[in-house]
Structures are given as C-alpha cells and as structure tokens.
Write a structure and sequence with these properties.
This protein has 341 residues and is mostly helical. Helix content is 53%, strand content 6%. The chain contains 13 helices and five strands. The chain has helices at 22-38, 48-51, 58-75, 92-101, 106-110, 113-119, 128-142, 156-172, 219-228, 245-258, 262-269, 274-300, 303-332; strands at 10-14, 42-46, 83-86, 148-151, 182-185. The chain has a three-stranded parallel sheet. The protein has a two-stranded parallel ribbon with strand order 4-5. The chain starts with 9 loop residues before the first strand and ends in a 9-residue tail after the last helix. The mean pLDDT is 92.
C-alpha cells in the first residue's frame, strides 16, 4: 500500500440523552471550543443514532437534540467555522457502519468493556445496537477520514478499536484509504465525578439531580448543589483520590474551572473550612455558567434558528461523508447505477 497523507480533521460527538452537565463541559465541550483555534476542520455530531441503543421517547429525543445544539453554541462552538449536525441526518454513518461491521471480528467487540457495563446482567435482553455501537462509533469518525478524536480516558478503548477496524479495511482491500485516528486525551478534567459519590463518574443518568451541575441550572441551584455536595469529616482540605474521593473531586472541579494547577488549588484552600471552599467553588462555577445558561435559554426559544443551523450543518457533513462513502463502495466492489435522469 502506498503511504497517504491525510488532512488533519477533528471528529467528536455527544448523545442527546438529557441535560449536559459540568462533566460534559469540562471533559469535552470546553476542549472542543479550544480545538477550533488549533484545527481548521472540526466536526461535532449530536449522536442520536447512538442514543436509541437504549429506549427513548421520540419527543424527548427531539427536544434533547435541540438542547444539545443550544448548549454547544452557547458554550462557544462556532457553527460557521465548525460543522455541527444531528448524526441521523447523514445516512453515510449507518451505511458505513455495516461495511465496517463486516471487517470486525466478534472477538474485538467482546473485549469492549462499555457494553458489559451498560448491559450488566441483562446482556441477553440487550439490543444489537448496544453491542455493535463501537462499530458505528468507528464509522462516525472514518466517514470523514478524521485524524484526531478528542476523548476522555475512559473512551480510549473505542479509538483503539477504530484504529483496528481502519487497519483491517486497509489491509483487506490493499489500499491506504482510512487514517488510523489518534486519540486526543485531555489530561485535565477528563473525568469529573458525582457530587454524591466521588468514585462514580458524573452522569446525566444518575437518579439524583444533586449528583451533577447541569448547564441549565440557575445560580441558586448551583450554589445549593455545591453546599450539599458530599465531603468528609477530616480536618483540612487535601487532594487524596483514594481516601478522600469527594474532596479530591471538588478540588479537581475548582482547578479545572479556574485553569490553575491542583497544587495551587490545594495550597489556596488547605486551611479553609468546607463551607468557605464550597462557596468559592460555587462563585466560580456561577460566574462561568451564568452567560452560558442565559444564552441557552435564548436559543431554546428560537427553534427556527436551531433548525437552520442543524440543517446547514447536516448539509455540510453530508457533502463530505457521502463522497467518502461513494469511494468506499467503489473499493468494496458494490454495483454502481448511473444517475437516473
């Protein structure tokens, strides 16, 4: 195979399955915004095909798609520079997933830990989509020949599978067609934990709304949630993930929001009371999220604008992905019909 140079391109996405929260913002969205200045080509999907791997109310899914779009714009995604679109509006994702699935041994999928985590003891009752979604995730990225995927450390296994699948396709068809995507692991705030349990990742599926700070929360709610955030009875504030996971999480959040080192954060608060520390953390979070929440609310009142943004993003994404899919079909040997007059 001849070596091929691929244009640097970012692809990442988020599922529309409820309120985006502090963990999404610090672990992903804020980094996406920054990447727009580093890369000329950024594509961000609202991953509704992935969302239906578990049951969804159709109306809730549509509303969540609007909310995610509003959230991303309010956080700083520039839809003129970057492409933002609903995944299901570009059929190349699903078509390429089938082709790539035929290159993917079951043994590779059996090693994926997230299916086991999500399905738990109900694996026999889980749908094929939940089992095979890492292949769709690979298609999401490879449909654009994306070279870099910003992910948290817990998603690194999926990028490794993408690379395996891309390499298998290239070898099987003796062509250097797909790049081997590189994970962009963010060293800071890759994993923000629950405010109620410092050993669990902050999640929008957690039963307790007090476990997370939602991007839609107002200032009073943010302050209340931080006041109620679990800490401990040990005197002083120190960073000890093993023995003081909740305190370590709050320190990590402050450090990440303030863009300062953990060492300086600990030094600043090591002799402070928990009430004073939580107040400072609340003030910092409110200052950052107040303009985001305000802009989100404005955008959610303008569905026509969001429709326009999503439609234009889908058209731009489809222009790239449909061309790549056409090339893949030619490589595979699918029959081509001439355009119908």
């Amino acid at each position: 195979m001849s070596e091929k140079t691929f244009k640097p391109r970012i692809f990442s996405g988020v599922q529309p399955t409820g309120n985006l929260h502090l963990g999404n913002y610090l672990g992903a969205i804020r980094n996406w915004v920054a990447l727009q200045a580093q890369f000329d080509d950024c594509i961000y999907g609202i991953m509704d095909l992935h969302a239906i791997t578990v049951p969804q109310s159709p109306e809730s899914l549509r509303n969540a798609t609007y909310e995610v779009a509003a959230s991303l714009i309010a956080c700083g995604i520039d839809t003129q520079k970057s492409i933002m679109f609903p995944q299901s509006s570009v059929s190349a994702h699903a078509e390429l997933a089938w082709i790539l699935g035929c290159q993917t041994p079951l043994g590779w999928l059996n090693r994926m830990t997230q299916f086991k985590d999500k399905a738990g003891k109900q694996q026999d009752k889980s749908g094929l989509g939940l089992y095979a979604y890492p292949v769709l995730m690979s298609a999401d990225v490879l449909a654009y020949q994306a070279t870099h995927v910003p992910v948290g450390d817990d998603q690194k296994q999926h990028v490794e599978l993408m690379r395996d699948i891309a390499g298998a396709f290239n070898r099987n068809y003796a062509i250097d067609y797909f790049p081997l995507p590189e994970p962009l692991i963010q060293p800071t705030a890759a994993r923000i934990m629950s405010l109620r349990d410092g050993r669990k990742k902050m999640s929008k599926s957690d039963d307790s709304d007090y476990s997370r700070i939602n991007l839609t929360d107002d200032a009073e709610t943010i302050a209340l949630k931080f006041r109620k955030a679990k800490s401990d009875t040990i005197v002083g504030i120190s960073y000890d993930v093993e023995n003081r996971p909740e305190v370590a999480n709050l320190l990590q959040i402050y450090s990440s929001l303030g863009n300062i080192s953990l060492e300086k954060t600990v030094e600043q608060f090591e002799h402070a009371s928990f009430s004073d520390f939580k107040q400072a953390l609340s003030d910092l979070a409110i200052a950052q999220f107040a303009p985001i929440t305000s802009e989100m609310r404005k955008l959610m009142q303008d569905r026509a604008y969001l429709d326009k943004v999503l439609r234009e993003g889908a058209e731009r994404a489809n222009a790239i992905a449909s061309e790549k899919l056409k090339e893949v079909k030619q490589i595979v040997g699918f029959f081509e019909f001439l355009p119908i007059p």
